[in-house]
Design goal:
The protein has about 190 residues and is mainly beta. It is built from two helices and 14 strands, in the order E-E-E-E-E-E-E-H-E-E-E-E-E-H-E-E.
Length: about 190
Amino acid sequence: MVDYGLDTYYLEIVTAQNENEFLTDKGQALVATPNENQKTYASGERVLLNYTLLDTVASENNYTVRINGSAKVPLGKLAFSNDSVIRSSSREPILLESVWIGSHYLNMQFYLNYKSQTHAIGLLADSASLKSDTLRMYFIHNTNNDPPGYPAHAYLSFDLKDVSGDWGKPVSVQINTSNYGNKTYTFENY
């Protein structure tokens, strides 16, 4: 939330429900006022939404909002593999800004050094950990020999609904970062 004295602006990753409605990861519905410049998103797409609340009291957990800007957030791929494949996978570092769980999504904000080649990014889950109490995942990043370029800012979401279940199985994700080293983040009770 940023207060510039005129309006309060919110910025968060939400899920598109239909043409003018979005669902926050806390389960609140945001209903946008009509705007001819508003982008449209397909149901289920993740969206980085910059908005202003037009009412401060929810009507049946719905808030009316004005959209100030929006951008699609890619959904990353989650694959299952064994320990030897995980150990041999490329995990080149990223500059991590934040990683968090919202609803059943693992969300990331980071920078990567990009010039011209498409980078391969995803999550590998240890298939042996499916039976354990914690799902262990590894962030995979391969620059595909992209020469040094400039810091490219990125948001990314991974849908964990099918692997963590409704009971919210704890998850840990290992991420190789240039600012914190090879670090493991564990999330419980989400």
